[in-house]
Amino acid sequence: xxxxxxxxxxxKSTQRYGDYSLPRIxxxxxxxxxxQSSAFYSRNNHLEYLKALAADIKNLPxxxxxxxxxxxxxxxxxxxxxxxxxxxSPVFSKMFQNEMEEHQKNTVTIEDIRMPVLKSLVxxxxxxxxxxxxxxxxxxxxxxxxxYDISELRHACCVLLMPKVTVENVFDLxxxxxxxxDGSFKISMMVFICQNFETIFSKEKNGC
Length: 208
Fold this sequence. Notes:
Layout: H1 2-5, E1 16-17, E2 20-21, H2 43-58, H3 62-66, E3 68-73, E4 76-81, H4 82-88, H5 90-97, H6 101-105, E5 107-109, H7 115-127, H8 135-147, H9 151-161, H10 170-179, H11 183-195, H12 197-205
Parallel strand pairs: 3-5
Antiparallel strand pairs: 1-2, 3-4
Helix pairs in contact: 4-5, 7-8, 8-9, 10-11
């Protein structure tokens, strides 16, 4: 039972493990699963997200609801309502409701996240929707979601990443799941490896 105890005899017809859908690759074939234009939340879940967001904002202090925060990335600035940030991120909530520098200045300088990624994060916080993008972009959004402890966004990233898993990138994604201690995503990667064991290791054997 290699790969953390996940048996290799898992049926290749298995399509789900944990929270995420698993693509399949037939032995000897190479697929790169194409992007999907759909967002993470269905219409009903989207409405539930907005209701929950509104309810959480009502519980915040009035001054937080009225204030905005400027995120500075290089020479670009993104202005965001402070209440939305605090309602959906424990990290932002602590940052803006305690006596931290960001609370005093209402300004956050970010050096490790690109502005398009930040905009995607902010859009998700407001709408509960994450538009699909390429693998690198979604991994960057995943990093931002981890940094600011936005679990719903992290989950949304994993859902959209799953169709993009290939025999070439699965080990990189497994490493990423380890780095961020994401048990569900890690298990999904291990199951993908088990389902496509022959394909993956025949490529390794042939030096591909």
